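haha ok so turns out i had the wrong file open the whole time. this is the CORRECT one, sorry everyone. sequence first:
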Amino acid sequence: MSVYELLFGDQTIDDVMMDASFPPGGALDAGRSRMWEGQPQEAANLVSGSIEPWASFIVALARQAQGQSPVKQLRSVAENGFLEARPRLWAWTALRKLGEQPAQVHAAEVLGVVAEVPIDGGVDVLSAYADGSVRYLNQAGALFARETSEGPSELVVAVLTEAFPLLSVPPAPRDPEAPPPEPKNVRITALSARGIHRVDLPDSAIAKGGSHQKLFTALTRLLADTAQQKPA
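then structure:
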């Protein structure tokens, strides 16, 4: 999967586990191998007590393979505010496909924001998440990534806060084949337990006095701060 696609946290657990990198010979690596070999119960046993969210994901897949419900394991990831935002989004994606819906307290949480800005024939992409991590993928393909164990910075909090109104946009699956935003438009996507909330905004909406000026200003400040780092 590309770096861009992973920004949205809408992949299946199977795809995520296929793409994940684990220490060779460790419990998670061995458990994943057992799943691929058609030994789900042994896979679940091997990863017991291992690092989350990966252990819960493997157990969830093992339970599905055995005709059992994975909801408990998926919710333990999706509803855990101490975990990274993207694994929580993957868990919510899986839960929705099982017909599960979030409680209001989780449905009202902005887990991430992705902004796509056309520039000189390309697109700059900035994403920020509730755990405080930030990704900036510029039009040249350079990735600037910031991880943190201290929670979101004030700049990230501002972005998430100003993006809250986007949760009123009905969620819809992301179209991987969708063209980039039109020139002079900005595409902003809020990520929540309910799915993907996307809007394409014209200049008038992000200019002074526009409906989304505060959100775009917050994103611009975060971008300026993030771009000072060296590419990952």
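The chain is about 40% helix and 15% strand.
again sry for the mixup
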